[in-house]
Amino acid sequence: MIWAQARSLRDPGGGSVRGGVGAWPVSADVQTGRFGQNLCSELRSSATETAWLARLLSDWLQQTGEMSSVKVESVVKEHAQIGEGPVWEESEQTLLFVDIAGQKIHRWNSATNQIQSLQTADTVGFAVPRRSGGYVAGVGCSIVAVDWSTQKVTSLASVEDDKPENRLNDGKADPMGRLLAGTMRRDAQTAQVKPGSLYLMKSDLSVTKLLGQVDISNGMDWTADLKTLFYIDSLAMSVDAFDYDSASGKLGNRRVVYRLAEGEGVPDGMTLDANGRLWVACYDGGRVLNIDPATGKRLQTVSLPATKTTSCCFGGPDYSDLYVTSASLGLDQSELQKQPQAGNTFRVTGLGVKGQPSNAFSG
């Protein structure tokens, strides 16, 4: 009821606001501030919906000022089953990403709008540039080397050979050139208590387990001083931080940085901007959250026209564009009709922040 009243306060002739639940026209009331007064009056009439609508109001009022210039566009129309792991390659101005269930590694050229792809033999959780050339990727439970020019794939190491029901998921290189990669159960819906782990691979290709008892190992990134690792185990519904030993890669002092609120979705992939703030893609939330890890506060919400947003990275000539991958797998025909861009990769501009170059594996 209050939702209907809130919708009635908008003017179809206005601009658009991207808040936590979608994009709507902006009314004169929003532009003059009367919208907040009117909606607050409505909020007082229904205590049961106050908390939810207060968060909505906060989103709207914030976005009108800070995100009025934000633009979201679909740039890679690949309709991936599970698009994931975007990495910007500065030297060629290309975006590297994977389709996990589609078993493909993709490279999108931002200048030509052309896509090159490599088919893998199993699910592919990530692909990361390699300092010696080519890539390392997580295929099934194997970490492999990929020679893009010849399309040759060579196994480097494997994990969890005793767990055929598991697969590698998200992976990323730290600033020292070590590879961190996590696992999860192939069928995440099947009940099993924390079947995954997080591993570290050094340049000599040795592999060490850093963390066990993980549900779905996902996003990670490091502070500039390499003292903190931000990490997501999706089903914990939080973004966590660890003390990170830059010499060994060992983890300690785990703590929660941000716990997702109801309706925000499931935390998935993430990246860190040049100001040390986190950008977290929320699966089944259709959004990316901008979080200040120092305060644990959500600063901004960027909505996407696909509910299954999966990961993000900064890119473009000056790293001011945010690229966001998404998934289409799991949507029924009715949902796909409502979300025709599901599975595409989106470019978000006008955020007013910049990212940093990605790291490459040193092995």
UniProtKB/TrEMBL annotation:
<feature type="binding site">
    <location>
        <position position="169"/>
    </location>
    <ligand>
        <name>substrate</name>
    </ligand>
</feature>
<feature type="binding site">
    <location>
        <position position="268"/>
    </location>
    <ligand>
        <name>a divalent metal cation</name>
    </ligand>
</feature>
<dbReference type="InterPro" id="IPR013658">
    <property type="entry name" value="SGL"/>
</dbReference>
<dbReference type="Pfam" id="PF08450">
    <property type="entry name" value="SGL"/>
</dbReference>
<protein>
    <recommendedName>
        <fullName>Regucalcin</fullName>
        <ecNumber>3.1.1.17</ecNumber>
    </recommendedName>
</protein>
<feature type="binding site">
    <location>
        <position position="218"/>
    </location>
    <ligand>
        <name>a divalent metal cation</name>
    </ligand>
</feature>
<dbReference type="GO" id="GO:0019853">
    <property type="term" value="P:L-ascorbic acid biosynthetic process"/>
</dbReference>
<feature type="active site" description="Proton donor/acceptor">
    <location>
        <position position="268"/>
    </location>
</feature>
<feature type="binding site">
    <location>
        <position position="187"/>
    </location>
    <ligand>
        <name>substrate</name>
    </ligand>
</feature>
<keyword id="KW-0862">Zinc</keyword>
<dbReference type="InterPro" id="IPR011042">
    <property type="entry name" value="6-blade_b-propeller_TolB-like"/>
</dbReference>
<dbReference type="GO" id="GO:0004341">
    <property type="term" value="F:gluconolactonase activity"/>
</dbReference>
<dbReference type="InterPro" id="IPR005511">
    <property type="entry name" value="SMP-30"/>
</dbReference>
<dbReference type="GO" id="GO:0030234">
    <property type="term" value="F:enzyme regulator activity"/>
</dbReference>
<comment type="similarity">
    <text>Belongs to the SMP-30/CGR1 family.</text>
</comment>
<keyword id="KW-0963">Cytoplasm</keyword>
<keyword id="KW-0479">Metal-binding</keyword>
<dbReference type="GO" id="GO:0005509">
    <property type="term" value="F:calcium ion binding"/>
</dbReference>
<keyword id="KW-0378">Hydrolase</keyword>
<dbReference type="InterPro" id="IPR008367">
    <property type="entry name" value="Regucalcin"/>
</dbReference>
<feature type="binding site">
    <location>
        <position position="167"/>
    </location>
    <ligand>
        <name>substrate</name>
    </ligand>
</feature>
<dbReference type="GO" id="GO:0005737">
    <property type="term" value="C:cytoplasm"/>
</dbReference>
<keyword id="KW-0106">Calcium</keyword>
<feature type="binding site">
    <location>
        <position position="84"/>
    </location>
    <ligand>
        <name>a divalent metal cation</name>
    </ligand>
</feature>
<feature type="domain" description="SMP-30/Gluconolactonase/LRE-like region">
    <location>
        <begin position="82"/>
        <end position="328"/>
    </location>
</feature>
